[in-house]
Amino acid sequence: MPAKDQDGAMGHGTVGRGGAAKAEEYRRKQMEYLFPCVGTYYEKPIVADHASGMRVWDVEGNQYLDFFAGILTVSVGHCNPEVTEPATEQMRRLQHLSTLYINMPQVDLAVKLAEITPGRLKKCFFTNSGTEANETAILLAKLYTGQQEVIALRHSYSGRSMLAMSLSAHAGYRRGGTHILGIKHAHSGYCYRCPFKATYPSCDLICARDFEELIQTETSGRVAAFIAEPIQGMGGFVVPPKEYFQEAVRIVRKYGGVFISDEVQTGFGRTGKWFGIENWGVEPEIMTFAKGLANGSPVGATIAWPEVADAFGGSTISTFGGNPVTATAALATLKVMEKEDIPGNCARIGAFLMDGLRALQQKYPFIGEVRGLGLMIGMELVGERKAPAADIAKKVLEATRRNRLLVGKGGLFGNVLRLTPPMTVGKAEAEEALRLLDKSFEEVAREEGLTYGAAAAAKGAAALKTAAGGMTTAN
Question: Model pTM greater than 0.90?
Answer without folding.
Answer: yes
